[in-house]
Amino acid sequence: MKNLIVATVFLLYAMIGQAQSYIGVSIGVDYAQIREKNSSNPIGFYTYEGGYTINSVIYGIKGEQYMTEKFSLSLQLSYTKKEFDASVGSYNPINGLKFNSYRGALSLKWYAFDNLYFAPGFTMNYISDINYFSEDGKEHAFFFIKNKREYGGILSTGYQYKNFLAELSYSRGVSFRDNKERTDFKPINSIGLSLSYLFQVSKKKKR
Fold it and tell me: Were both Cys, which of 20, 46, 136, 155 would link to 66 (CB 3.0–4.6 Å)?
């Protein structure tokens, strides 16, 4: 996670020093599909949600570097906290699980029709502080699953109006770097809706 933050800060700083560069903030909603890995572990956990129903507010910072009138490079670092109903097959019942999710996404944006764009890219998601909460509302560390890094892809489309960006995205988890635990998540998929505001950090106009 530390390497991701350093790389993001470095790239955002590099963007500021270049022409046709923008940096800004974003907020949105993330609808995730979180499933347990099939396991014979008797203390494995089980989720009750089947589709893209685990929603949470997502916050982020975004940098964009225009290479031509039609193409730009977009870098985003975002954070959300997931909380969902779950149970474990053990003597210690739980009401659900929660964790922090930090995601870095690098995308190539193509402005196909004026301000309408499409953007494929790849992601790295860091999942940390995995806790369970009991019936009394108290949180406890869920020792069966460790912090982990997840790699995947993202496909976005959106519309830009002046300095505002409205975006719809679909991200698909492909694999975890370390996925040897008997109790674990499957790669996480999600659908996101977000609104961003970008500040121009160069004197030259974008288009």
Answer: 20
